[in-house]
Amino acid sequence: ETGVTQSPTHLIKTRGQQVTLRCSSQSGHNTVSWYQQALGQGPQFIFQYYREEENGRGNFPPRFSGLQFPNYSSELNVNALELDDSALYLCASSFGTGRATEAFFGQGTRLTVV
Amino acid sequence: SQQGEEDPQALSIQEGENATMNCSYKTSINNLQWYRQNSGRGLVHLILIRSNEREKHSGRLRVTLDTSKKSSSLLITASRAADTASYFCATEYGGSQGNLIFGKGTKLSVKP
């Protein structure tokens, strides 16, 4: 078990709604990255936060947004949910950016959009 | 788009046998990592190999990297039923801010 916790573990939302997912990073880590994993696929990078600033973004529309707090925990917000947003959302914490470092993943939030 | 492609997509072996999974990638990388995922849960880091390294070992795991062929392999020796999981390679490349690019994974099934 890593020290990264995500909440909630499962969530069902209706198309068009908004959702907020939460992640507590491992102690000592200042970087949080979010990934979306569709069924049968590898995780895809959404964005990364470093010291409360967005530090990189993958190919996701602006309705995917995030925050990082002074204690380095993070939120992922998705507006105007679409059916294709159904996936496992993973957060990973690490120390620093732009260098080879092990990422510690949480257990994920399974989002189902109906 | 995904940088790495694992091969095979699925692998079924008996306990005690060795399992070999391969990963190919497209662009030059800083490092390559292997992760394990049990039943759609979180990913567990297994091993990181830098672009200037050719081979690394960790317990029953052996990873090789061939940057000229843009490929890596993960060997699990003396497999156990508990090794049943999906295995992903992930690359970190120049210009990225530390984010990882994952392949689609190899689903390994180890039968007792």
Topology:
The complex is a heterodimer of chains A (114) and B (112).
Chain A: E1 5-7, E2 10-13, E3 19-24, E4 31-37, E5 44-50, E6 53-57, E7 64-68, E8 74-78, E9 87-94, E10 104-105, E11 109-113
Parallel strand pairs in A: 2-11
Antiparallel strand pairs in A: 1-3, 3-8, 4-5, 4-9, 5-6, 7-8, 9-10, 9-11
Chain B: E1 5-7, E2 10-14, E3 19-24, E4 29-37, E5 43-50, E6 55-58, E7 61-66, E8 71-76, E9 85-93, E10 101-102, E11 106-111
Parallel strand pairs in B: 2-11
Antiparallel strand pairs in B: 1-3, 3-8, 4-5, 4-9, 6-7, 7-8, 9-10, 9-11
Gist of the model:
The complex is a heterodimer of chains A (114) and B (112). With 114 residues, chain A is mainly β. In chain A, 0% of the residues lie in helices and 50% in strands.
Descriptive account of the structure:
The complex is a heterodimer of chains A (114) and B (112). Chain A has strands spanning 5-7, 10-13, 19-24, 31-37, 44-50, 53-57, 64-68, 74-78, 87-94, 104-105, 109-113. Chain A is an all-beta fold and 114 residues long. In chain A, strands 2, 4, 5, 6, 9, 10 and 11 form a seven-stranded mixed beta sheet that branches. A four-stranded antiparallel beta sheet of chain A has the order 1-3-8-7, with no helix packed on it. Chain B has 112 residues and is an all-beta fold. Chain B has no helices and eleven strands. Chain B has strands at 5-7, 10-14, 19-24, 29-37, 43-50, 55-58, 61-66, 71-76, 85-93, 101-102, 106-111. In chain B, the strands form two sheets. In chain B, strands 2, 4, 5, 9, 10 and 11 form a six-stranded mixed beta sheet that branches. In chain B, a hairpin with a 2-residue loop joins strand 6 (55-58) and strand 7 (61-66). Chain B is globular. The chains are: A mainly beta (114), B mainly beta (112).
